[in-house]
């Protein structure tokens, strides 16, 4: 962040990487909304660097990103990312070509995934309304099942073998547990569920459980429990109110957070932040959904996930009032029934974006944010 001495404006440099599929559609919508919000607020400016890193770039040049990509990103205050994945490029090439190198090399080890039911949005769960499902899933984002360790031997022969090794380090597990207990402590219920599978995964996940118990001693005000990942899926569906903050491994949280998004109405709503809590490097913010080939180019992608993502990014940058104003505007629009088809509505991406911009322009929130509804 830079302060503009002439205008007193706070300036942030944002690296925008829309990527593939609906990524460019929802990131363009998000940047439009952010511009309106910044103009309306008058206290900060976003200087956006646009990067075309994508599968299209890979097809043309053989690389998703240029060689100096990480140094370019390190100059940013935050990264605003769309999605990566194309029908004609294998998924492991796209993921390991763009998103994972950014998360791993910038040590964004804490992935946060809030989920809740917005006003006007229906959960597929019977009798579950707004307020009944309000979760924060914390995903270990640097090792575990996605550490990239493994290989293949005897390729193409009948005895071919492939290994996929999960890595759990004491420092890696301890830092994500400390982060998760800390996040649970910030929320009103101060309740954390540690998701595990230590009955079957008897090395890495036993270490995971042991470290959870050790770290818990430093957070006596946080109530915590432990749940096997399979039982957790049942609990999320059958007893959503019993859950608040959740911490899980890279793979487990990846799966649980898609379920969480669906239970809150749609994958198109949910945001995520890939966070470096120590702020050595910029953090990266993205909707949790992928490229969504089935709706790419149709103009119906739900932009709410990218708006909520933008709000998380502002919060991380310290613009907490603006972050709340943005979420309030999105809630107003959802409550008014301006919803894309994934939420049962008929609005287009452009309709929802326009409505959020109008809500922001017309909103009469006090400049200090005192009259912003609680979020
Ligand atoms: N972070 C990422 O970049 C990321 C995440 C997940 C998947 N992917 C990639 O995206 C590609 C497609 O993956 P997938 O089909 O498993 O998952 P996906 O999230 O792209 O789509 C799953 C379903 O959700 C719907 N959906 C997703 N976002 C939506 C939105 N904003 N509005 C309305 N509907 C939405 C899609 O139409 C589809 O029916 C693959 O190449 C995959 O590897 C990338």
Automatic annotation (TrEMBL):
The keyword Lyase is assigned to this record: yes
GO MF: D-malate dehydrogenase (decarboxylating) (NAD+) activity; tartrate decarboxylase activity; tartrate dehydrogenase activity
Q: Where is the Isopropylmalate dehydrogenase-like domain?
A: 13-356
- Give the transmembrane ranges: none
| One Pfam family linked to the record | Iso_dh
Q: Which reaction does it catalyse?
A: (2R,3S)-tartrate + NAD(+) = 2-hydroxy-3-oxosuccinate + NADH + H(+); (R)-malate + NAD(+) = pyruvate + CO2 + NADH; (2R,3R)-tartrate + H(+) = (R)-glycerate + CO2; (2R,3R)-tartrate + NAD(+) = 2-hydroxy-3-oxosuccinate + NADH + H(+)
State the InterPro entries in the record: ICDH/IPMDH (IPR050501), IsoCit/isopropylmalate_DH_CS (IPR019818), IsoPropMal-DH-like_dom (IPR024084), TTC_DH (IPR011829)
Intracellular or extracellular location(s): Cytoplasm
The principal localisation class reads cytoplasm
Describe which pathway this protein belongs to, using the record's wording.
Answer: Carbohydrate acid metabolism; tartrate degradation; D-glycerate from L-tartrate: step 1/1; Carbohydrate acid metabolism; tartrate degradation; 2-hydroxy-3-oxosuccinate from meso-tartrate: step 1/1; Carbohydrate acid metabolism; tartrate degradation; 2-hydroxy-3-oxosuccinate from L-tartrate: step 1/1
Q: Which UniProt keywords apply?
A: Lyase, Manganese, Metal-binding, NAD, Oxidoreductase
Q: Look up the EC number in the record and give it.
A: 1.1.1.83, 1.1.1.93, 4.1.1.73
Name any cofactors this protein relies on: Mg(2+); K(+); Mn(2+)
Is Phosphoprotein set as a keyword in this record? no
Family membership noted in the UniProt record: Belongs to the isocitrate and isopropylmalate dehydrogenases family.
PANTHER family recorded for this chain? Answer: D-MALATE DEHYDROGENASE [DECARBOXYLATING] (PTHR43275:SF1)
Q: What role does it play? A: Has multiple catalytic activities. Apart from catalyzing the oxidation of (+)-tartrate to oxaloglycolate, also converts meso-tartrate to D-glycerate and catalyzes the oxidative decarboxylation of D-malate to pyruvate.
* Protein's recorded name: D-malate dehydrogenase [decarboxylating]
Species = Rhizobium viscosum
């Amino acid at each position: 962040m830079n302060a503009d001495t002439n205008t007193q404006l706070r300036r942030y440099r944002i690296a925008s990487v829309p990527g593939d599929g609906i990524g460019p559609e929802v990131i363009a919508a998000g940047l439009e909304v952010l511009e309106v919000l910044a103009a309306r607020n008058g206290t900060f400016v976003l200087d956006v660097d646009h990067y075309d890193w994508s599968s299209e770039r890979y097809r043309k040049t053989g690389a998703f990103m240029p060689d100096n990509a990480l140094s370019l990103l390190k100059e940013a205050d935050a990264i605003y990312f769309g999605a990566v994945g194309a029908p004609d490029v294998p998924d492991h090439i796209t993921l390991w070509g763009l998103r994972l190198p950014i998360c791993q090399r910038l040590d964004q080890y804490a992935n946060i995934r809030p989920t809740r039911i917005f006003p006007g949005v229906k959960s597929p769960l019977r009798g579950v309304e707004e307020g009944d499902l309000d979760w924060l899933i914390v995903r270990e984002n640097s090792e575990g099942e996605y550490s990239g360790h493994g290989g293949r031997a005897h390729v193409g022969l009948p005895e071919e073998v492939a290994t996929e090794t999960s890595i759990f380090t004491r420092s890696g597990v301890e830092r994500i547990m400390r982060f998760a207990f800390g996040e649970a402590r910030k929320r009103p219920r101060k309740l954390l569920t540690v998701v595990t599978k230590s009955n079957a995964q008897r090395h890495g996940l036993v270490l995971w459980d042991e470290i959870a118990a050790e770290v818990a001693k430093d957070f006596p005000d946080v109530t915590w429990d432990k749940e096997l990942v399979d039982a957790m899926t049942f609990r999320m569906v059958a007893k959503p109110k019993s859950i608040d903050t959740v911490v899980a491994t890279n793979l487990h949280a990846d799966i649980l957070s898609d379920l969480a998004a669906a239970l809150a109405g749609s994958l198109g709503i949910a945001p995520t932040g890939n966070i470096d809590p120590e702020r050595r490097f910029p953090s990266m913010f993205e909707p949790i959904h992928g490229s969504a080939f089935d709706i790419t180019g149709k103009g119906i992608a739900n932009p709410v996930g990218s708006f909520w993502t933008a709000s998380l990014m502002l919060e991380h940058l310290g613009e907490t009032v603006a972050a709340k104003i943005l979420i309030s505007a999105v809630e107003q629009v959802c409550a008014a029934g301006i919803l894309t088809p994934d939420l049962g509505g008929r609005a287009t991406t452009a309709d929802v974006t326009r409505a959020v911009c109008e809500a922001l322009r017309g909103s009469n929130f006090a400049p200090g944010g005192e009259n912003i509804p609680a979020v």
